[in-house]
Amino acid sequence: MLPPTIPIFPLPNAVLFPNVFLPLHIFEPRYRAMIADTLEGDRIIGMALLRPGYEADYQGRPPVFPIGCAGVVTRAETLADGRYNIILRGLERFRISEEESGKAYRVAQVTGLPEVVPDEDRAELRRHRHRIEALLAAAIERTGAQPRFPPAVPDEDLVNALAQHLKLDPLERQALLEREGVLARCRGLIELLEMKTLAPRDTWKDGTVH
Questions:
Q1: What is the tens place of the pLDDT at every residue in 121-174?
Q2: Which whole-number Å values give the CA distances from 98 to 38, 90, 169, 182, 192, in the listed order?
Q3: In this structure, what DSSP letter does residue 144 have?
Q4: Phi/psi of residue 75, nearest 5 degrees
Q5: Hey, which residues does 10 pair with through a beta bridge?
Q6: Is the dihedral of CA 5, 113, 23, 74 positive or negative?
Q7: How far is 114 from 21, CA to CA, in rounded Å?
Q8: Percentage of the chain surpassing pLDDT 90?
Q9: Whole-structure pTM value
Q10: For the chain, N or C: smaller number of CB within 10 Å?
Q11: C-alpha to C-alpha distance for 131 and 193, rounded to whole angstroms
C-alpha cells in the first residue's frame, strides 16, 4: 500500500510501470533534494508524465497526467557534484488528488491503484501473450535477428515491461498505464504492436525490444 503523500518526479518522456525497473539520472537541485529526502525515508517516489506544453513553465509546476506509477529506489549512487544515479522499481499505479506546497520539489496526495489479475482473466492473458510474441517475432524478423522472449517472466510482468521498454511515444505509454487492469493494457499493447509491424525498421533493434 502506498503512503497517502509522496514526492512526484515529473518528466516529459518517462513512464514507469509496476514491477519494471527504470534507471534515472538526477541533476536538477530541486530533485536532488527530493532524492536526498527520499533516501532518508521510505525511498518511494511517484513518476508522473508532464502534459504537452510543459516547456513554458518547466521550472514551475506545469500540469501532469493524474495517473502515474510509484517506485521504490532500489539503488542510488551519489556523485561527487551532488547528482544521483538511481534505479527505480515500479510498485503501484496511483491517482493524484491534489498537490501540496512547501517544498522545492513537488509533493502530491495520491490514491493507490493496485492491480490484481483475476483468475478468470489469466487464460485470456496467456492467449494474448502468445499473440504479442508472434507480433514481436514478425517485427524482429525483419531485422534478421532471432527474437528472445524470457518464458519465465509472468504474463503481467511481460506486458508491463514491453509497455515501458518498447520504442513507443510517451503518450502511447501513458495511455497504456491508464488502462484499467493488466488485461486491458495487454489488449492496448497488441493494438499498438499491430500498428508497429507496419512501422520503419528502427522500431526494432538487435533482436531484443528497446
A1: 999 999 999 898 888 887 666 655 555 556 678 999 999 999 998 888 999 999
A2: 20, 21, 26, 26, 32
A3: T
A4: -150, 140
A5: 48
A6: positive
A7: 18
A8: 68
A9: 0.86
A10: N
A11: 10
